[in-house]
Amino acid sequence: MKIKLKRFLPIILATVAIIGLAVIAITNFGNLQRPGENKQNELPTGDYLTLEEIEKIEELVANLTEEEIAKLKEKAMNGVQDELTLRILLLLDDEIEIKLAKNLEVIAGMPIKGEKTLIGDASIKIFLGSNNNTMEDGILELAKGSTLHMKGLVLDGNGVCHAVVVPKDATLNYLSGTIQYASSYGIYNQGTLNIEGGTFKQCMAAAIGTNRGSTTLVSGGEFKDNYKNHIWTAAESTVEVVGGVFDHSYSHAIYNLGTYTMTGGTIKNSDRGDSCAVANFGKAYIDGGDNYIEISNCVTGLFSESDTMEVNMVYGHDMVKNFLRIKDGKGKVTNCKIENTGTYGVRVAGEVIVEKEDPTCCPDCGSKNIWQDEDVLDTWFSSALWPFSTLGYPEMTEDYKYFYPTDVLVTGYDIIFF
After folding, report:
1. Per the confidence metrics, is the pTM higher than 0.85?
2. Strand ranges in 132-275 using DSSP code E only, listed in sequence order
3. Residue-wise burial string across 196-225, b where 16 or more C-beta atoms lie within 10 A, e elsewhere
4. Any bridge partners for residue 201, and if so which?
5. Bridge partner residues of 172 (DSSP)
6. Residue 49's closest CA among 98, 125, 109, 107?
7. What whole-number distance in Å separates Cα of residue 343 and Cα of residue 363?
8. What tens digit of pLDDT does each residue of 11-43 get?
9. At 360, phi and psi to the nearest 5?
10. Average pLDDT over residues 217-239
11. Which of 248, 229, 226 is closest to 239 using CA atoms?
């Protein structure tokens, strides 16, 4: 039987071409070229770098020329669209502002050196099948002494790792953006962390984990649906909250073992099990002052098992069980302007103490921070103020001498009806 080669020639040629391309790909696997030389320096295929390629990047950075670094910085300003360029820029010691212009999916965290500003509307997401990260790693990992400013990005831990790790002597200034789906903490802070805005949601352990010796300042942001806590603070750490909304956690919204100060913000909807708005086992100072602190719809508002918890000027309502629970008498309330809808006792907001003798403390909570309302004016006494307010008393003015004392009483029959 004769075989007509012409019929099979296209199939044979296509097969040879595919085999040839495969040989070329295998031969060049893992070889990284310097970005900035030509178009071949961009990643040719794939959504993310391989682990072998990532391991070679530090060596690549060490051998970059000044001209190549200048081209990379220009690309940083115009918009980075590939993982390789982003990783190289983050490893340079220079102060650089980097605009991320394309969503990236990566298999391992990105170390950061020097001072960097990372902006853009794009996202960085850990590949779900990655086994190159542990729960202690982060998508972004600052080096000691480094500083990172972030604005607008979405960091997606995908249940694999933290979003950002801040070690001792490093600083993260988080201005806006979204951190979500972290396996443990959205931001794991051992250095200095400043949060001015952004959204933190569905992190497994807490949106913010503050470990020993670190400082976290929260002046804004929305914390929502985090599975355990919104903020967790270890011993010897400091967290200060001056703003922000903490909405719906599956356990305590704030879990404090260190020093926690709150002078503003809203905590609401910690309504599962025995959840508290603030569970204090360290030192907690909650003082609304001239601001407004609201705690609402929680099983328990404030709980303390520590000797140090001070509460002042907080508005709370719709508690399932109680607003304030001090275990074994530990802690104190320093102001009575708290509304209690549960079973444990502090006074209702604005409630007046009426006593025959001047009270020295609140009869309910024992606070000595009480005062006489300065805006109350006795109607029957107000007429006696006339010489003080209109005639210059206590000075013996001509008007005072002429008009006072009086011999005329003008009143209304609705007041004096007899």
Report:
1. no
2. 138-142, 147-156, 162-166, 171-180, 185-189, 192-195, 199-201, 206-210, 215-218, 222-226, 229-233, 238-241, 245-249, 254-256, 259-262, 265-268
3. bbbbbbbbbbbbbbbbeebbbbbebbebbb
4. 180, 224
5. 148, 193
6. 107
7. 17
8. 666 665 556 544 444 344 334 333 333 333 333
9. -100, -15
10. 94
11. 229
